[in-house]
Design goal:
Helix content: over 70%
Distance between the termini: 47 Å
Number of strands: 0
Radius of gyration: 16 Å
Number of helices: 6
InterPro entries: Vesicle_transpt_Got1/SFT2 (IPR007305), Vesicle_transpt_SFT2 (IPR011691)
GO biological process, one term: vesicle-mediated transport
Order of helices and strands: HHHHHH
Structural class: mainly alpha
Largest sheet: none
Protein name: Vesicle transport protein
Function: May be involved in fusion of retrograde transport vesicles derived from an endocytic compartment with the Golgi complex.
Family: Belongs to the SFT2 family.
Strand content: under 5%
């Protein structure tokens, strides 16, 4: 990961695509495992979370680790980052230590929305557009 900043642009894009594809496949596998009797919900939570971690990690190839961390903790993204990382951790805790499938599913739902809110923060004016759209839909 430290050497990623010295990689060429082609290698960075390939690393991004590979890591993102692995993340997507983990999330897809988790969705398929949701229907496994008894342990399905826990397997879903684990693979879905690992998939999201891999997808977030894929952006390290494009920006580099230090720039990614700096941008994650900018004031405009700080709350979204904290909520997203908390949901990732709480999902794994509920699956492995607390053995509570309902909590794992709830944290996966929170994880989805937190990651979406975090992701759109990189698109100029996207949060404003989503907020306005939701306010129109709810009123």
């Amino acid at each position: 990961v430290i050497d990623v900043t010295s990689l060429g642009w082609d290698t960075r894009v390939k690393g991004f695509i590979a890591c993102f594809a692995i993340g997507y496949l983990c999330s897809l596998l988790g969705s398929c495992l949701l229907w496994v009797p008894k342990k399905g919900l826990v397997l879903f939570a684990v693979f879905y979370t690992l998939g999201n971690i891999a997808c977030i990690g894929s952006t390290l190839f494009l920006m580099g680790p230090m720039k990614q961390l700096k941008r994650m903790f900018e004031p405009t993204r700080l709350i979204a980052t904290i909520v997203m990382l908390s949901c990732l951790i709480l999902t794994l805790c509920s699956a492995f230590w607390w053995h509570n499938a309902g909590l794992a599913l709830l944290f996966c739902i929170f994880q989805f929305f937190a990651l979406a809110w975090y992701s759109i923060s990189f698109i100029p004016f996207a949060r404003d557009a989503v907020t306005k759209c939701l306010s129109v839909c709810l009123s």
